[in-house]
Specification:
disordered N terminus; about 575 residues; alpha+beta; 4-stranded antiparallel β-sheet; about 25% strand; 2 domains; elongated; 3-stranded mixed β-sheet
Length: about 575
C-alpha cells in the first residue's frame, strides 16, 4: 500500500512548460530549486534572466496548448519547445548562478495546498552504510531539495532515489545491498528482541524468535532502485520529482506462527489463572495486620493469541501487550479492612468450672469465632460457626443443662461462649436476630444476659448492621473468657450505653429427700441442682453527656427453678435362716 509523507502542488501540471522546466533543471543541475520553491516559485531579482527564459517557454507552451485545443499534434509541438528551452537554458548559466546564490530552500514552509515538510537534514556524506549502522528503528524520509534529488540519481546511478521507504525504513541514497541490509537489520532486531505479555500486571517475557517471526518485501527494493534510471530526460525528471513529492512507500509483510503463539499462551499464561482471594486481617500484640487481596484472573486464550498475532503483523510491533483476561474482584478488600481500628464493645465471664473437658470445649468454640470478619449486612450463626459438637470436631464431655438438671455431654460449656459473645454484641449495638435464654439461670452471667445454644433448637444469630466490616476476637486468659468486637466507631463520643438486668421475681425451692425401699438401707444418691426460679428482663439505657435519653427493654425471660433430690434406701436385709432340725429314727 502506498502512502504519502509529502504532498506538494505542481504549478505547471503536465503542460509543455513542465517539460521545459524539467530540461532546465535536469540538464544544468546548477539551478537550485528547493522543494518549496518548486511548489510555489519565489520572486527574486537575481533570477530574473532565468525567469525570462521560463516565461518565453511558458508563452510557447500556451501556444502549444492552444494548438492542442484545435486538434493539432501537441506532442510534436512540445518536443520543439523542449529543444528551444534547452538552448535557452544553456545560454542562461550565468543567471542561474546568481539565482543559486540568491534563492534558498524553505522546506519547512507549508506548500500551497499541501502539508508541512520536515526540516531537511544534511545528507552529504551519509550513505547506506551509515544508515545501516544507525539504531534499528523505523524512520521517515528526510526532506530534500529538488536539486539534491536530481543530483543523487544523475550523479550516482547506483543509489536509490530520495523519499523511498520500505517497511518504515528510509532507504533513499542507499545502494540495493545497503538498503537490503538496513531493512533486514531492522526486522532482525525485532526477531532478536524480547516480547512481554502482562497478565494482571504480572509480566511474562519470551523471545520474539520463539514465535517464528518472519518478514518479506519481495522485489520492492530493486524496483525502487529503478526510479529515475531509464527513459528520456523528461521522463526521468518526472519520476524523480514525482517520487520526491509523493514518495515511494511500500510495506513489509510480517508474521508469526499462530501455533507457536498458542503454545506459549497455553504453557506460560494459562497457568497464571487464579481464583480471587479475599484480603484478611488478624490481631497480634494489640495491632491489626492486613494481608492484601488477590484478584482472580481468567485468561481468554483465543483473544490473547489473536492479539499477539495481530501485533506482529505490524512493521512496528509493540514491545509489550496486556493479555485479554477477565479480572474478578474478591469480596473483601484491604481498604475495607483498614477501617477496623476501634473497639466497639467487649464482655467477659469467669470460668467457674475449669474441668478439662469443659475448658477444652470453651477454647475450641471461642477459637472458631476468633478472627472472624463480618462484612456490612453479613449474618453469622454461632451454632454453625463453631460446628457440630462432636469428638471429630474437637469437643469433649462437659457439664450442661438438660431438663432442669446438670449432666455430662459432648460439647458441654459452649453456652458460655455464646453468652460472652452476646454481651460484647450488645455493647457494640449490632443487630441481634436470634437469642434464647437458658432453661435455668447460670452462675457466670447476670439474669437475661445469657444466650443458650442447643443443636437444632437454640442458636445465637446476629447481623453486622454497620457500614464497615467488624472483627471478632475471642480468647481465654487467667480463668476468664473474653470477647471483643472491633470496627469503625461512628457513635458520638458523648454518647454511652448501659445494660441493666432487672429481676421481676425469684423463688428458691428447698431440697427434697426421698426414702425408697427399692434401694437397700445405706443407699444415698443426690441429683439435680440448686437453681432459683427467676423472671427478669434486660434494659438498654442510653446517655448523652451523662443524661439519660432512652431506656428500652431488650428481652424478657423466665427461668425454671430446680432443687436437689436425695434418694435414701430403706430396704432391710432378710434375717438369716435358722438351721433345720434333723430327727433321728428311734432304735
Amino acid at each position: 500500500m502506498k502512502t504519502r509523507y509529502i504532498t506538494c502542488k505542481r504549478p505547471f501540471g503536465r503542460s509543455p512548460l513542465y517539460k521545459a522546466a524539467a530540461v532546465i533543471a535536469a540538464m544544468s543541475l546548477i539551478i537550485p530549486v528547493p522543494m518549496a520553491a518548486y511548489a510555489e516559485p519565489q520572486e527574486t531579482p537575481v533570477a530574473e534572466e532565468a525567469r525570462e527564459a521560463a516565461a518565453d517557454a511558458a508563452s510557447e507552451g500556451n501556444a502549444a496548448d492552444t494548438a492542442a485545443a484545435e486538434g493539432e499534434n501537441t506532442e510534436a509541438a512540445a518536443e520543439a519547445q523542449v529543444d528551444e528551452a534547452a538552448d535557452n537554458a544553456q545560454g542562461d548559466e550565468a543567471a542561474a548562478d546568481e539565482a543559486q546564490e540568491g534563492e534558498t530552500a524553505a522546506p519547512d514552509a507549508e506548500a500551497e495546498g499541501g502539508e508541512a515538510v520536515e526540516t531537511p537534514q544534511d545528507q552529504e556524506g551519509e550513505t547506506g552504510e551509515a544508515a545501516a549502522e544507525a539504531p534499528a528503528e523505523a524512520t521517515k524520509p528526510a526532506a530534500h531539495t529538488l536539486e539534491e534529488a536530481l543530483a543523487l540519481v544523475f550523479d550516482h546511478p547506483d543509489r536509490i532515489a530520495y523519499n523511498t521507504v520500505i517497511g518504515g525504513i528510509d532507504i533513499g541514497g542507499m545502494t540495493v545491498e545497503e538498503a537490503e541490509a538496513a531493512v533486514n537489520g531492522y526486522f532482525q532486531s525485532i526477531a532478536d528482541s524480547n516480547f512481554i505479555i502482562n497478565v494482571n500486571q504480572t509480566p511474562v517475557s519470551i523471545a520474539v524468535s520463539s514465535f517464528d517471526y518472519k518478514w518479506t518485501y519481495g522485489n520492492e527494493i530493486k524496483e525502487a532502485a529503478k526510479i529515475g534510471k531509464s527513459g528520456g530526460l523528461v521522463s526521468r525528471y518526472r519520476e524523480i520529482t514525482d517520487n520526491l513529492c509523493d514518495g515511494y512507500v511500500k510495506d513489509v509483510e510480517t508474521s508469526v506462527n499462530p501455533d507457536a503463539v498458542n503454545a506459549f499462551v497455553s504453557e506460560r499464561l494459562i497457568p497464571l489463572n487464579t481464583e480471587p482471594q479475599n484480603a484478611s486481617i488478624r490481631r497480634e500484640n494489640g495491632e491489626f495486620i492486613i494481608t492484601p487481596e488477590i484478584y482472580g484472573v481468567s485468561l481468554n486464550q483465543e483473544a490473547t493469541v489473536n492479539g499477539i498475532v495481530e501485533n506482529f503483523a505490524s512493521e512496528t510491533p509493540a514491545e509489550s501487550l496486556d493479555a485479554v483476561a477477565e479480572i474478578t474482584s474478591p469480596g473483601i478488600l484491604s481498604e475495607q479492612l483498614a477501617t477496623i481500628q476501634s473497639e466497639l464493645g467487649k464482655y467477659s465471664t469467669p470460668i467457674r468450672d475449669d474441668s478439662w473437658g469443659r475448658l477444652t470445649n470453651i477454647k475450641v468454640a471461642s477459637g472458631r469465632l476468633n478472627g472472624r470478619v463480618l462484612m456490612p449486612g453479613e449474618q453469622l450463626s454461632v451454632s454453625k460457626t463453631i460446628l457440630p459438637r462432636t469428638t471429630e470436631n474437637g469437643y469433649r464431655k462437659g457439664i450442661q443443662f438438660n431438663n432442669g438438671s446438670n449432666e455430662e455431654a459432648i460439647g458441654g460449656g459452649v453456652c458460655q461462649v455464646s453468652t460472652t459473645l452476646y454481651g460484647a454484641l450488645l455493647r457494640s449495638e449490632l443487630q441481634i436476630d436470634e437469642r434464647h435464654p437458658h432453661s435455668m439461670v447460670i452462675s457466670y452471667s447476670a439474669y437475661s444476659t445469657d444466650a443458650a445454644i442447643a443443636s437444632g433448637s437454640k442458636d445465637l444469630v446476629f447481623t453486622n448492621n454497620q457500614a464497615t466490616p467488624i472483627y471478632i476476637q475471642g480468647y481465654v486468659s487467667n480463668g476468664r473468657l473474653y470477647f471483643h468486637i472491633y470496627g469503625q466507631e461512628t457513635r458520638p463520643e458523648n454518647r454511652t450505653v448501659e445494660f441493666k438486668s432487672v429481676t421481676v421475681s425469684k423463688k428458691t425451692y428447698p431440697d427434697k429427700t426421698v426414702y425408697s425401699s427399692s434401694y437397700p438401707a445405706g443407699y444415698k444418691k443426690s441429683t439435680g441442682s440448686h437453681h432459683a426460679a427467676v423472671t427478669s428482663y434486660l434494659e438498654k439505657i442510653v446517655y448523652v453527656d451523662g443524661n439519660e435519653v432512652s431506656r428500652d427493654r431488650v428481652s424478657y425471660d423466665v427461668y425454671e427453678g430446680s432443687y436437689v433430690t436425695t434418694v435414701i434406701g430403706t430396704k432391710q436385709a432378710a434375717p438369716p435362716a435358722e438351721p433345720a432340725v434333723i430327727e433321728e429314727p428311734a432304735e
